[in-house]
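Morning run. Coffee first, then this:
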Amino acid sequence: MLVIDVQKGLFATNPPPFEAQAVIARINSSLAKARAAGVPVIFVQHEGPPDGDWMLPETDDWQVHPDLHCLSGDVFVRKKTADAFYGTPLQEILHSRLIQRIVVMGYATDFCVDSTVRNAASRDFEVCIVSDAHTTNDAPGLKASAIRDHFNWAWGESSSSRGIRVVPSSNLSFVPATK
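And here it is:
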């Protein structure tokens, strides 16, 4: 399970991202389902450029949002671009654990979530997007709700070798790992 960029500073905007608190609640509900089935959880954190003060590592804004339910066994990956795979150990982490399917949630539907989903599909991962557990801010001329609806539709219509599924958090389920 990948939780992308749900960080304190990214949710502290005025106005906040679309359905910010509801999205965090849906992510937490999805995390509980995943953990109950023994599914590993990976939090991806965006960090800003070294010459600026935006989202610098270890600052308060860079931290995972305090309302997220993180556990000591969770994995944390730092990224510097929209795509959580580019320049990070994410693919190696997934392959070392023999993970072929990923569930994606998080922030910046139109940037970081989309880039990661498309790259995961190109890398032959089976991808599931939790349709109501990702969000963004309004863009010029387009409301965040419409952005989320559009990307849910686009991902659902996309073809890939292993498939891209879009499901609401209420329908998300996991099969417990067999030993």
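The chain has a mean pLDDT of 94. Good start to the day.
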